[in-house]
From TrEMBL:
SMART domains found in the cross-reference section: HTH_MERR
A GO molecular-function annotation: DNA binding
Coiled coil: none
Protein name (database record): HTH merR-type domain-containing protein
Source organism phylogeny: Bacteria, Bacillati, Actinomycetota, Thermoleophilia, Solirubrobacterales
Region of interest: Disordered: 131-155
Domain HTH merR-type: 5-73
DNA-binding among keywords: yes
Keywords linked to the UniProt accession: DNA-binding, Repressor, Transcription, Transcription regulation
């Protein structure tokens, strides 16, 4: 085996992901199709770097489509900061909404800690006029109907 390449299993182990995730990234166009040696996929340093980028943008809340846009634009020769700045400016309002949701949840939970109601039927925390912890805000990890991926990774 060439020292500069990794098998799909080695690459998956290095990043702590399943080999199926690597194949999925290939199908989705965020990881280029690898060279094959005796029928086995062989990944070079470029694949490892792309997976590193994918890990970071996922933690930053970007969708797979947004990650693809970032990778494609930088691969086309555009300066990385241009597409990164544009995507970040679009993502920031979503993050602000998540923060507002978390703050509303925290407030509700703090109020719940001090609750002394003997029945949920009479507790103001459960009245529609009181509201629930940001119930109208989309939950970032809610699974979208018909998919097996968290909503954060749906386009």
């Amino acid at each position: 085996m060439d020292q500069a390449t990794l098998t799909i299993g080695q690459l998956a182990q290095r990043f702590g992901i399943n080999t199926s995730a690597i194949r999925y990234y290939e199908r989705e166009g965020v990881l280029p199709q690898p060279a094959r040696v005796s029928g086995q996929r062989r990944y070079g340093p470029d694949a490892a770097k792309r997976l590193e980028v994918l890990e970071v943008v996922k933690r930053a809340g970007f969708t797979l489509d947004e990650a693809r846009l970032l990778l494609q634009s930088t691969g086309a020769g555009a300066p990385a900061f241009e597409s990164l700045r544009e995507l970040a400016q679009r993502k920031l309002p979503e993050v602000d909404a998540l923060i507002a949701r978390a703050q509303a949840m925290r407030t509700w939970l703090l109020t719940a800690i001090d609750c002394s109601c003997t029945s949920l039927d009479v507790c103001a925390l459960f009245e529609p006029s009181h509201g629930t912890p940001a119930s109208d805000a989309p939950h970032p990890l809610r699974v979208t109907r018909g998919t097996s991926r968290p909503a954060a990774f749906n386009a």
